[in-house]
């Protein structure tokens, strides 16, 4: 209890803007579409005004739009922003009139599907990202000051992290465990720490916690607490959710979607279906291959406009992920049925059709003899399948999986490569399924 009080007091005194902004959001009903739309539109007007008046890339764009009075059709006149455009025209995307340059910092995306992307964020954007993250906690029954554990793995984030006492762990009431590298002995050690700390809340890379959960369940280890579990940095597949929940006494597990570039994007909400857009932080669209809005229940690419970065605003940015639209909104989307994952999380057939990565993950998850896997499409007819075996491995189990893959990809060669581990991306993620074919 005393640790909760310390954490609350620290945030209340030293980060009052975060605290009071959170109180404003907590008063809004996540299911009240009209209130959210008005709140979001007010922010969108301000960022458009800044972009078209002070950012060269948008000032020089041959687009007629009145930031104070525009329709969604007007907004669609703004061409989508791609990673390649940001790389080649980054100097034109800065607000030359921005007055708080000392509060601007450079960051990079993870580069999980290719070359990392450099971009610039403001302190205000960072504050809003934190507020929206705390709002997601609130929507799932967690207070920002509750005892928590971070099971994290981005190499650049972890140099100074450990499980020992330090002042940050005290004031944030948090234990941080580095999951960038995991094996059975490390997992066993971390499980002991978690059982000792008994966090009310766990934030984790979904694949790292999935590995830990499999270890707990396989070895029938007793977990003496029941946390709320926040999973991020990848799709939370049904098999993963079930395994993780079971390991932690059938805990409530929810999916949160964010990114380095734009911070909080969407979250699942306790008691509700789908993923709700963090309307205070981003404006989201889901577009088809021709950049037209999809309808409810249809899948498309996620396109994001940042609402709190007035130095390097990103308008209609193709982030590289896909989702299924979950509402009937004409102005973008406020609810996603589900986030499917990276654009490269699909495998292409010869006829141009695509197979979603989830088809392949369901073939491998919960197989006794396969600890982990990765399927990479090198060309339209060649795939590399990396397999990490465990002591229960049986060739017949893999042969059964390969038959199912060959049925869907009859003209492809699948090269099976046994490995000691699956390499992580720069931010500690696993890309289970992706294609290197450029589309």
UniProtKB/TrEMBL annotation:
SUPFAM superfamilies membership: Acetyl-CoA synthetase-like (SSF56801)
InterPro entries per record: ANL_N_sf, CapK_Type1_Caps_Biosynth
Protein name, entry field: Phenylacetate-CoA ligase
